[in-house]
Design a protein that fits this description.
Elements lengths: L24 E2 L27 E12 L12 E11 L2 E8 L4 E3 L5 E3 L8 E8 L3 E8 L2 E5 L10 E7 L8 E6 L6 E7 L4 E8 L1 E2 L11 E5 L2 E8 L4 E8 L2 E9 L2 H8 L3
Antiparallel strand pairs: 1-2, 2-3, 3-4, 5-7, 6-7, 7-8, 8-9, 10-11, 11-12, 12-13, 14-16, 15-16, 16-17, 17-18
Length: 268
């Protein structure tokens, strides 16, 4: 992977996506006071202060581009840069990664999900190789922590669902639908301490339709059981899938509607 060299800037009070309508994540917010410059995400080391006190509090995309013509999210705009903001014992730090010319972030917004299971978030994004399609990538302030394999050809995408310890084994899984308009396969990868490993997959499920600027469903917890909410392949039913003994099991809970999805997400 080829990374750019950065210059130091100050934190912005707001993010303007220009012609792109997608929004930055606002979450895991802490006290942001001042800034200590930008550091290359390709570097192995951390900034002074160490990892123990530094927590990701916000992430956003910048650098809108039309260099990849897939347009699966309803417009021609994707992104070339990821900005990560952290709080390090009250000191605000900002990191930026710029992708090489043959990659884009083909995504709505960065997700602050705990992938490593340490109680602090990483940044989860859809990173697309323009020749090899989408992958799910995990970043923090030290760089790219993990990435699933690219799908394998251009104009092939994935739609994230959720990240959580889905089977109660103490390790975090992350789920996405591989090619939600074509293959419609729910895939679950587990964090093994250093990488994401495929744990289970199940066909006949989807969570996105071409042109929509949102992803349907997500994670629910009902009676202590964590489950993934999606639609079935033809959008006729709301489906709830659980991971147990290394396998996914799914069932219909209602005829599909967005209202039914909302009820399913809240255990209704």
């Amino acid at each position: 992977m080829r990374w750019t060299v950065w210059s130091s800037i100050c934190l912005k009070s707001r993010f303007d996506l220009m012609e792109a309508p997608r929004r930055p994540v606002r979450g895991w917010r802490g006290p942001l006071r001042g800034v200590r410059g930008l550091f290359g995400l390709g570097l192995a080391g951390l900034v002074a202060g160490g990892a123990s006190a530094e927590t990701i509090v916000e992430a956003r995309f910048e650098g809108p581009t039309t260099r990849y013509g897939h347009g699966i999210l309803g417009d021609a705009v994707e992104f070339t840069q990821l900005v990560i903001m952290t709080d390090d014992a009250g000191v605000a730090r900002q990191y930026r990664v710029s992708l090489p010319d043959d990659h884009v972030f083909e995504d709505l917004e960065p997700r602050l999900w705990d992938i490593t299971g340490d109680g602090a978030p990483e940044v989860v994004v859809i990173e697309t190789d323009m020749g090899l399609g989408g992958s799910l990538a995990v970043y923090d302030q030290t760089g790219k922590r993990a990435e699933t394999p690219h799908i394998g050809r251009t104009n092939r995408w994935l739609a994230p669902v959720a990240a959580a310890d889905l089977d109660g084994d103490g390790r975090v899984e992350v789920a996405f639908v591989d090619r939600p308009h074509l293959a419609k396969v729910l895939r679950v990868f587990e964090w093994d301490g250093s990488a994401l490993q495929l744990e289970a997959e199940l066909g006949g499920l989807t969570n996105h339709r071409i042109g929509e600027d949102f992803i349907t469903g997500g994670l629910r917890t009902c009676d202590g059981v964590r489950a993934l909410v999606t639609a079935d392949a033809d959008w006729s039913d709301v489906m709830v899938s659980v991971l147990a003994d290394g396998a996914l099991v799914t069932r219909s809970v209602a005829p599909f509607s967005h209202e039914a999805v909302a009820r399913a997400m809240t255990c209704g």
